[in-house]
Amino acid sequence: MSRPDYDLPRASTWAISGIWFAASMLVMIGVFQILGGLAAIINSDFFVVGAHYTYHLDTTAWGWINLIVGVLVLLTGWALFAGRTWASVVALVMALISAIQNFFLIAYYPWWALLVIALDVWVIWALTRPGAVAEA
Q1: Backbone phi, then psi, for 36, in 5-degree steps?
Q2: Residue 136 — very low, low, confident or very high, per pLDDT cuts 50/70/90?
Q3: Do the beta carbons of residue 66 and residue 40 sit within 8 Å?
Q4: Sequential DSSP letters for 42-74
Q5: Residues 17 and 122: beta-carbon distance below 8 Å
Q6: What is the pTM of this model?
Q7: 33, 66 in Cβ contact below 8 A?
Q8: Domain boundaries, the chain
């Protein structure tokens, strides 16, 4: 049974814009990560790391991690566009996972990783603004 409209909280235009912005950024971040992952899988010499990096992992493994996280982030962005109620929470979690995963990628491809981390932080900010989750 449907509730009357007067019981539902109304999200502001700013909140709705923040959700759309976050969804757009998630789709873009997902594509970036997919492309980076494919680059590492196809050509494992693409990413170069110093000899003394603490979190050393085979670049092909990083590529698969990037690819999987990228696909999940992309799907989460589409779910946020579709207005799924669970999507805002999953989007926050995926943005956190993406930022952490790119932190470990800094030694391999620093400017790219820092750009994606900054975009992830922007998504987190957009989704945690007042009223942002109510409309999603």
Answers
A1: -65, -40
A2: very low
A3: yes
A4: H-TTSS---TT-TT---HHHHHHHHHHHHHHHH
A5: no
A6: 0.79
A7: yes
A8: 22-44+56-131
